[in-house]
Amino acid sequence: VFIAQSRASGSHRDVEDEELTRIFVMIPKSYTEEDLREKFKMYGDIEYCSIIKNKTTGESKGLGYVRYLKPSQAARAIEECDRSYRAILAEPKNKSSESFEHDYYSNITRQEPRGNTLPFCGQPEFCSFEKNESRIQESVSKRLSVVSRLPFIQEQLFALFDLVPGLEYCDVQRDPHTNSGYAVIQYSTAASAIYAKYKLHGFEYPPGNRLTVIFLEDGSDSSE
């Protein structure tokens, strides 16, 4: 994780306070603040933990904040904690918590594949695939072919395509004559493959090297 700070921003500590040291997590409603601290203290020095509660009943909403002393510790927690916590950097305190909770729930909801529906329909540009089928001219499948002028590193390519939920495998191959990169990617649903192709075809990885992503026939019924 790389965190950049604008030179034009205020003092370094102010930026850390507002943007880089607090993370927002989804937790079991049974968790106490001590449970939350115990789960996240391995990633760095914690300044405080807090659990968001219903103002009327006092019950936990299943959400919490963890504030670290250093941005690098917050970044490590986001990278290494169990994915069930869905950890992200928290919005600055000047944004209302209710607004942030709503945005957070909306975001994680559309990241959950549900049957044959498209999981990212919170994003208008992607929903147009569902609303305008004529835009998809090629045969859709759950398998993708990725081609590059440069060879791929298995772990890095896997991490890139794993940003889209549902990645089942990433098989990297190399042409010994041209040294170009070639890989086969497969997702659990066609919806995830469509989104990965839509977002990563033409993506520069590494910078200056554009990826070519196309569908590969996988024998499934593309009408899904």
TrEMBL record:
CDD domains, per database record: RRM2_RBM45, RRM3_RBM45
Gene Ontology MF, one: RNA binding
Superkingdom as given in the UniProt entry: Eukaryota
Record's keyword annotation contains Transcription regulation: no
UniProt keyword terms in alphabetical order: Repeat, RNA-binding
Pfam families: RRM_1
Entry protein name: RBM45 protein
Originating species: Podilymbus podiceps (Pied-billed grebe)
